[in-house]
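ok, trying the design again with the full structure, not the truncated one.
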């Protein structure tokens, strides 16, 4: 079974991610992992922090001579900003006068709920962990999951559908238009439509100018996913449910859509469901679809079409023109705390969501095909492909 978790504070010394259950023999390409980390740091509207960090994955265990050895994998990402925080956020007690209190909770951030829960007198420790800096650790192990699912021919990539009111419209973007995005050396808003990208940039500029922030929608596609991952047999084994939880777990994601789920709710069945055809050489088993409103999942099972998962991001809650709040100590009305912040993170959130989708697919694929070594896993996978061809 594939298991993973992360550790680390936003301004601590490092982030650490653990991934356990990866079959032995998988080739690990560290440049690929670092490129994934670079992609998460890009996008118009990121704050000053991303100019300080240049994330690199340092693998501590579970990989030797360039391959996974079946043992748990630990990956460390240094926080370059740590040198500026050693006195403010030491592991030891340190000098309390140098600690940086977050005196008034930001509406929309974890500050108030976290301080109440853990009985803290300010929000410093809360935001240190709630911060989406943590998502860099997920991208590191998500990169490993991507390398694993590539063995089955599966590719995972995201694009931005909307930023604020600027959108590419209600269109199904095919994989062929999304895959070139991976080669971009400069990432503005990671949009397939150049005109829409200009309008998206204007939305960010407006937020920058007015001391505000802006959200949006990203879409993750997983291409070449075989039918049969996930199952309707048990509620928590459904692929759609697992993907929804995985993507929703990302900071600031407030809704998840599979395929055209949202418009489906206001459409007639004939306009929603993807008619089935047959052409012997098509796909995994010859069955075809003219469109993919289902987003590649029916009954909680992948159906052989591309997976399409959208995440809806609320605007960032740290505002340069802060909203009203209350001082933790005095309970007097004050403006919410401000700390250097992003203004728009939709492209970065899309990259983090790719990782969550890849980790989910890796777990489901391992459940279906099993295997302790990559050779064994692929033997089982190839047997299944043959079964589909013979169906
Ligand atoms: C890639 C990424 C970067 C983010 N950067 C910031 C940021 O700079 N400032 C901020 O207030 N929130 C940022 N957020 C959102 C917060 O982490 C998030 O709103 C907060 O942890 C509360 O969690 P919730 O929004 O899921 O309820 C970011 C989210 C993502 C996905």
């Amino acid at each position: 079974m594939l298991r993973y978790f992360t550790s680390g504070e936003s301004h601590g010394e490092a982030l650490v991610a653990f991934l356990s259950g990866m079959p032995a023999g998988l080739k690990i390409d560290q440049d690929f992992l670092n490129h994934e980390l670079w992609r998460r740091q890009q996008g118009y509207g990121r704050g000053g922090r991303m100019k300080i960090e240049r994330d690199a994955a340092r693998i501590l265990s579970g990989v030797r001579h360039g391959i996974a050895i079946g043992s748990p994998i630990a990956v460390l990402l240094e926080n370059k900003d740590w040198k500026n925080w050693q006195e403010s956020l030491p592991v030891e007690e340190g000098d309390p006068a140098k600690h940086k209190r977050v005196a008034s909770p930001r509406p929309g951030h974890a500050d108030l709920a976290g301080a109440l829960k853990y009985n803290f007198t300010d929000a410093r420790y809360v935001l240190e962990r709630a911060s989406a800096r943590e998502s860099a650790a997920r991208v590191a192990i998500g990169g490993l999951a991507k390398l694993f699912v590539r063995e089955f021919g599966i590719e995972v990539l995201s694009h931005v559908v909307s930023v604020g009111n600027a959108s590419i419209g209600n269109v199904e973007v095919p994989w062929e238009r999304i895959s070139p995005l991976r080669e971009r050396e400069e990432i503005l808003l990671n949009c397939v439509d150049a005109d829409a990208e200009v309008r998206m940039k204007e939305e960010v500029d407006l937020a920058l100018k007015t001391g505000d922030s802006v959200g949006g929608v990203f879409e993750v596609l997983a291409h070449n996913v075989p039918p049969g991952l996930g199952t309707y047999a048990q509620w928590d084994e459904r692929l759609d449910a697992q993907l929804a939880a995985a993507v929703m777990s990302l900071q600031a994601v407030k809704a998840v859509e599979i395929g055209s789920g949202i418009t489906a709710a206001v459409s007639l069945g004939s306009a929603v469901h993807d008619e089935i055809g047959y052409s012997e050489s098509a796909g995994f088993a010859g069955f075809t679809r003219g469109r993919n409103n289902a987003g590649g999942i029916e009954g909680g099972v992948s159906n052989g079409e591309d997976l399409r998962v959208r995440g809806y991001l609320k605007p960032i809650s740290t505002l340069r023109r802060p909203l009203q709040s209350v001082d933790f100590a005095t309970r007097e009305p004050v403006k919410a705390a401000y700390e250097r912040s992003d203004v728009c993170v939709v492209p970065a959130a899309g990259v983090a969501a790719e990782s969550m989708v890849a980790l989910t697919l890796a777990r489901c694929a391992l459940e279906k095909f099993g295997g302790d070594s990559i050779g064994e896993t692929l033997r089982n996978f190839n047997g299944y492909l043959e079964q589909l061809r013979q169906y």
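Keeping the full-length input from now on. The chain has a mean pLDDT of 97.
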